[in-house]
Amino acid sequence: MHLSTLSKPISRFIHSQPTLCSHSGSQIYRAAMAADGPDTTAAPALFSPCKIGKIELSHRVVLAPLTRCRAPGELPNAAMEEYYTQRTTPGGLLITEGTSPSDRAAGFPRVPGIYKEEQVEAWKPIVDAVHAKGGIIFCQLWHVGRASHSVFQPVGLKPVSSTDKALPEKYKILLPDGSYDTHPEPHALSADEIPEIVDQYRSCALNAIKAGFDGIEIHSAHGYLIDQFLKDNINDRTDAYGGSLDNRTRFLFEVLDAVVSALGPERVALRISPAIMHLDGMDSNPLALGSAIVHRLNERQRRQWNGAKLAYLHVTQPRMLQYLTTNSSRGGPEEEEADLIKALRSAYDGTFMCSGGYTRELAIQAVESGEVDLVSFGRLFIANPDLVKRLRIDAPLNKYNRATFYSGDPVVGYTDYPFLEETETVVAAPLEGSRL
Question: Rounded to an integer, what distance in angstroms lies between the CA atom of residue 252 and that of residue 93?
Fold first, then answer.
């Protein structure tokens, strides 16, 4: 029997099996696509179903967590509701902007929180609106650690961190009045102070579920608090939280274990960035760090969680990876970072998401090759509220305006980016006085 006679049954099988969000699933999908031969009507794997925990997604395009500074008073609001619902698709996953789990956690103006009852209540209409359109939404819990300033701290206290080393002066922080300043010297947390922060994550994870969120993502990347414990360029501790990989990953897993004990693993996700040097967050051996985290995750999934797995592991890869080609022979740092992503993907026993400079073509290639299960988009999703549709039909994309990313305006650069139908209408309309 020729393989082409099997193509449509196999394709139907793939598209009806949302659990195929793994190595084997990607391999089966590739086999099905090969069997389909030149049939170009088949949707790319990027638009095939996938499961995260017990939740079924209809496609693999994810809204990345994006700080937008549109929550005056740390309260979610109607403008945020419009922003998130604009980007909602049936069965699509949205991850919120970083959300503060305590009054010591913020490092940007107008960042929402979820540690007060009024904040929980303010999130509910947003979550309900996303659910009403069939979307899935996770809340990202984000503590910036030393990447803060006394103006964001209660009574002008120092920010907290794994260290008392301030960020280098080349890094500037945006203040509520629109000016920029250097970061102050942080307070190095004592071992006795750490359990309180762990409990704040647990408490706010429960608050997120109370607000109706489908799950939470723990932000452990990009040089923020948890990453300040993970990276040996920052962590200079000599106690149980510093030195060895076991020690440097201790805080991360204390937070993770506390949150999982409250929600179960399938409503919890983790974001890491072993190779990202943002906010001076370098590590002398990113592969060893990432591998240690993945190994401990796998052990928990097999032994402590009785086979249950995290909703997903979210790894950030450097933006410059988009410029790599498979024919490159430079063997430089970029290729080493690409190899790191592949190594972590190969080692991790669970759903694997990546972000960082993806185009439509790279995202399709990454999913169909089995390199990733899900792709999160940031800047492209800012400028294209209907990004999923545009990627699906390969439509032109709006350009983003970087100047409005953190401006605070509730409309401009936030909810006023046009949908595809609106741009098509503008193009199709004849100019006044034309002879068309």
Answer: 24
Total structural domains within the chain: 1
Structure confidence at residue 357 (pLDDT): 87
Tens digit of pLDDT for each residue in 43-82? 789 999 999 999 999 999 999 999 999 999 999 999 999 9
Please tell me the predicted confidence (pLDDT) of residue 411.
Answer: 98
Task: Report the pLDDT value the prediction gives residue 418, as an integer from 0 to 100.
Answer: 98
CB 100 within 8 A of CB 55: no
Q: Which residues are catalytic?
A: 224
Per-residue pLDDT for 325 more than 80? no
Give me the CATH number covering residue 122: 3.20.20.70
Token couple for 258: 């506390």
- 247, 364, 356, 253: which is closest to 310 by C-alpha? 253
Closest CA to 160 of 127, 202, 192: 192
* Cβ atoms within 10 Å of 314's Cβ, excluding its own: 29
DSSP E strand stretches across 129-260: 136-141, 160-161, 172-174, 180-182, 187-188, 215-219
What are the tens digits of pLDDT across the range 351-360?
999 999 899 9
Q: Would you say 298 and 338 are in contact if contact means Cβ atoms under 8 Å apart?
A: no
Are 62 and 372 contacting, i.e. CB atoms less than 8 angstroms apart?
Answer: no
In a domain, 27, yes or no: no
Q: So what's the pLDDT on residue 282?
A: 92
pTM over 0.85: yes
353 assigned to some structural domain: yes
Domain contains 236? yes
CA dist 138 and 18 (Å) reads: 19
> Beta strands 50-52 and 55-57: pairing type?
antiparallel
Which structure tokens are listed for 235? 């962590």
Question: 63: which residues sit within 8 A by CB, 6+ positions away?
Answer: 87, 92, 93, 94, 95, 376, 377, 381
Establish if 428 belongs to a structural domain.
Answer: no
DSSP character at residue 15: H
Domain that holds residue 245: 43-419
pLDDT in tens, 164-221: 999 999 999 999 999 999 999 999 999 999 999 999 999 999 999 999 999 999 999 9
Packing angle of the helix pair 194-210, 250-263 (nearest 10 deg): 30
